[in-house]
Specification:
It contains seven helices and no strands. With about 220 residues, it is an all-alpha fold.
Length: about 220
């Protein structure tokens, strides 16, 4: 069966399209973790689609990198929904918002793309490629982002939008409070990274239970 008829190719194309649309519509800069993580998603899944077509395979390349990509975009979605939007329903803003273009951009970047990537990680190949020892390396990017943001703000006080997120801004509550926020987020990110690895294992288990004996994989 040609890769062009495989759902995996079109699912990954949809991921690239969602991230690409969100980035094109956005007026935000690369100082935001949201933008950086979506750029990573776009680059990885464009590469994955190219690889799949070139090699006529349903498996994405660099599966351990795919785990990192999944973690970063999941962090983007959860931080936006829970911390920034306080759990608010994003759907009304898509039709009643003050700036519909930015509402739709945010929806693609914070909701559609993370959900599609998680679906890819859970359902599509390759599986069982992530390792528990990958977690420190995966976490180096979000923790490095916080370190770079704080260092840049200290060295360049006139840098525009030097604190993109309130939990990195020491202006009101000081660096002690910011440090506690980073420690709390670190524990949460470790748990989230462990969940990503666990979902990899769960996807394998579900595939084995649902696949008829002797049947070839079709994803």
């Amino acid at each position: 069966m040609s890769v062009w008829t495989r759902p995996a190719l079109w699912w990954r194309s949809a991921i690239a399209l969602s991230a690409g649309l969100g980035l094109i519509l956005s007026n935000s800069s690369l100082v935001y973790f949201t933008i950086e993580s979506n750029v990573i998603v776009l680059g990885y899944f464009l590469g994955a689609v190219y690889w799949m077509v070139k090699r006529d395979t349903v498996e994405a390349p660099a599966p351990r990198l795919r785990g990192a990509v999944t973690l970063y975009i999941t962090i983007t979605g959860l931080v936006a929904h829970v911390l920034l939007n306080k759990g608010a329903n994003p759907l009304p803003g898509l039709v009643n918002g003050d700036d519909l273009v930015q509402e739709w951009s945010s929806f693609f970047l914070h909701y559609v793309t993370p959900v599609l990537v998680l679906g890819d990680w859970l359902c599509l190949k390759p599986r069982n490629a992530s390792r528990w020892k990958d977690l420190p390396l995966w976490l180096s990017f979000p923790l490095g982002y916080a370190a770079v943001t704080l260092t840049r703000a200290a060295l360049f006080p006139d840098f525009p939008n030097k604190y993109p997120y309130f939990f990195l801004d020491p202006a009101e509550k000081g660096y002690g409070w910011v440090s506690l926020q980073i420690v709390q987020l670190t524990f949460e990110f470790v748990a989230l990274a462990a969940l990503v690895v666990g979902l990899d294992r769960l996807g394998t288990l579900l595939a084995r239970k649902l696949k008829p004996a002797g049947a070839e994989g079709t994803d």
